[in-house]
Amino acid sequence: MLEPWKSFFTEIDNSLHEELALHCLGGFVMTMLYGLARPTADVDVLPLGVNFATDSLMRLAGEGSALHKKCGVYLQIIGVAQIPLGYEDRLTEMFAKTFNHLRLFALDPYDLALSKIERNTQRDRDDVKRSSRYRFVWLRINTYRHHLSPNFSPVPHIKISNPSVQPAC
């Protein structure tokens, strides 16, 4: 793990007294785990089940915290995210056995791409386009439609009429 991430997560780990699992998504996962070259200063994580744990973690490592100022990176709890059903079964542990109490898990590449398409910002569309060029993921939207909201409409410039056809790379 490269700096500043190693120092950042080590400080979080050192502050913990029991195990904490974070489900990570976004640019951090795409960069660190799936090799997509894209700068990011935050780690997007899904909300923790316990509010006091979330509050404590955000005071320690959230945007504007002393740790953010020291390391230049921060945690961001994603309040609204369309994550496919059953994503927990497909999580991958990142940096296993690196920390004593902190465990980082990444969304599966398909789940990550689907969450980005659902949000549909320009940056997310660019990430999905870049990821498909790097063979990060081939979006089989028709296969995963049942995991998405009923209002889902694919990104306009990505048309998949036959999910069995693979992209030419």
Short description, anyone?
This protein has helices spanning 5-15, 27-32, 51-61, 66-71, 109-119, 122-133, 141-144; strands at residues 20-25, 42-45, 74-77, 92-94, 102-106.
How would you portray this structure in words?
This protein is of the alpha/beta class and 169 residues long. The protein has one domain (1-169). The protein has helices spanning 5-15, 27-32, 51-61, 66-71, 109-119, 122-133, 141-144, and strands spanning 20-25, 42-45, 74-77, 92-94, 102-106. A five-stranded mixed sheet has the order 3-2-1-5-4. The protein starts with a helix and ends in a 25-residue tail after the last helix. Residues 134-146 and 151-169 have low confidence and may be disordered.
What is the number of independent domains?
1
Q: What is the H/E string?
A: HEHEHHEEEHHH
> What's the pLDDT, averaged over the residues?
76
The total count of helices amounts to: 7
User: What overall geometry do the principal axes of the alpha carbons give?
Assistant: globular
The radius of gyration is 17 Å
Percent helix among the residues?
Answer: 25-40%
Parts with pLDDT < 50 across at least 5 consecutive residues: 134-146, 151-169
What is the number of strand segments?
5
- The strand order across the widest sheet is 3-2-1-5-4
**Gap between N and C termini:** 29 Å
Kindly estimate the percentage of residues that lie in beta strands according to DSSP: 5-15%
How many strands, what sense, and barrel or not for the largest sheet?
5 strands, mixed
Which structural class fits the helix and strand makeup?
alpha/beta
